[in-house]
Amino acid sequence: MIDKNGVPAERVLDEIRQLRAGDRPVHGGRLFAYVYDPGVGGLDALGAAAHAESAHVNGLDPTAFPSLLAMENWLVGAAGGLLGGGPGSAAPDVVGSVTSGGTESLILAVKAARDARPELTAPRIVVPASGHAAFAKAAHLLRVGLDTVPVDPVTLRPSVADMATAIGPETVLVACSAPSYAHGVVDPVAGIAQVAAAAGVRCHVDACFGGWTLPYLRRLGVPVPPFDFTVDGVTSISVDLHKYAYAPKGVSVLLHRDATLRSPQYFAYADWPGYTMVNPVLASTRSGGPIAAAYATLRHLGDDGYLRLAATTRDAVGTLAAAVRGVDGLRLMAEPESTVVCFTGTDPALDLFVLVDELTARGWHTQPQLRYADLPASVHLTVTASVAPRVAEFGPDLTAAVAAARQAGPVELPADLVALAGSLTPEALTPELIGGLAAGLGLGAGPPDRMAVVNTLLDAAPAALRERLLVEFVGLLQRPTW
Ligand SMILES: Cc1ncc(COP(=O)(O)O)c(C=O)c1O
């Protein structure tokens, strides 16, 4: 409850610091998901100071706050220039918007594609199965059909032929990833863009994750296939600045090849008694803080800075991948071609979810990925430059964690839980059942230390049941404090 007389500033900050002590460490190179840390001294302070300068500025009206418009236009220019657009390039008319994140960029790419075809009553999008879940969210929110194209279990990419076959008369957008989040592989963008263009359909490249590193990796000699506006048929690209541009959270850029393609992304409304409204993005009021922080981060790190960070990251990826190769019972899902190391198990006696917990116990926070279609469960590592100084410690800890996981043996769910997971339909989940399941899984008073049992249950359940369980479990955590 809100305090009657308020709380002194220092005490509030102390409270936040104490709360933060329970979080995973955002610095130190041991968290392989959620955070992107370049390990550059002073960058947090710069971002915070820039954020503070513009936190109360409102992006709702660019004429009232030209500072924000100027910074936004600069960010779009920086992203467009990096991704094959700008003066003298194959895509000289690139335009864009700054959004709050990758999900918003993808929703807006789908919205623009849908609203460009108002004559279609049942618009659809074609997305590889490895495409980010945000495409499914966009399809759900915008009531657009989702046609998912399977990925090859070895290359982890969709085939161009399958993508072409999935395009129909109602398709408004074809998507691909550069690279995919789960495995870090780059889709055959040129082929996909070509079949999309041949069908007269937009092609969006989701470079949210790797759009800021792939160009630098290429400059360092890594073989990166064409994926940006240099590819004919690519109509839009998203790139998240709060990922590998290392800006504080809340900033992504959605680029379109030209302003005509972008136009249906906007929402304007003048048919009410209040101010006339024009929103390029989903939010109406939006803080200038994240935009200013991103502006400061990009200006400060500069081109050379990003090149250096990409080289450091590439080396760290190499060492981590070698560590995985060196452990019996593990196999890389794909040879790393960007900044992801993803591995699976080859030995039934080694439970990956137990391994993830054993790594956590040793201070390494990796991300478990549940099995999907032909793909086995896997462990995902998003690698950032801050990992480099710690990377030599990973191999020995991985070996020890694997030994401990083997010794512990695979998770065995209680028989009644297994029976429940096999027989339950999402509709049959009552609040009592959820409560019982949560208690059985140790989810009673917040997230448990060890997640293997929860992951095993989710892994055993079909997707619809997984989704419902996730919603209910997180719903249990999100309860007001009084
Ligand atoms: C390829 C890709 N697209 C989209 C997203 C969604 O981004 P956000 O979490 O910023 O909404 C992510 C996030 O990891 C991603 O990796």
From TrEMBL:
Species classification: Bacteria, Bacillati, Actinomycetota, Actinomycetes, Micromonosporales
InterPro entries: GrpII_AminoAcid_Decarb, PyrdxlP-dep_de-COase, PyrdxlP-dep_Trfase, PyrdxlP-dep_Trfase_major, PyrdxlP-dep_Trfase_small
UniProt keyword Transferase, yes or no: yes
Co-factor(s): pyridoxal 5'-phosphate
Alphabetized GO MF terms: transaminase activity
Signal peptide limits: none
Keywords, comma-separated and alphabetical: Aminotransferase, Lyase, Pyridoxal phosphate, Transferase
Family annotation (Pfam families): Pyridoxal_deC
Family: Belongs to the group II decarboxylase family. Sphingosine-1-phosphate lyase subfamily.
Name used for this protein in its record: Aspartate aminotransferase family protein
Top-level taxon: Bacteria
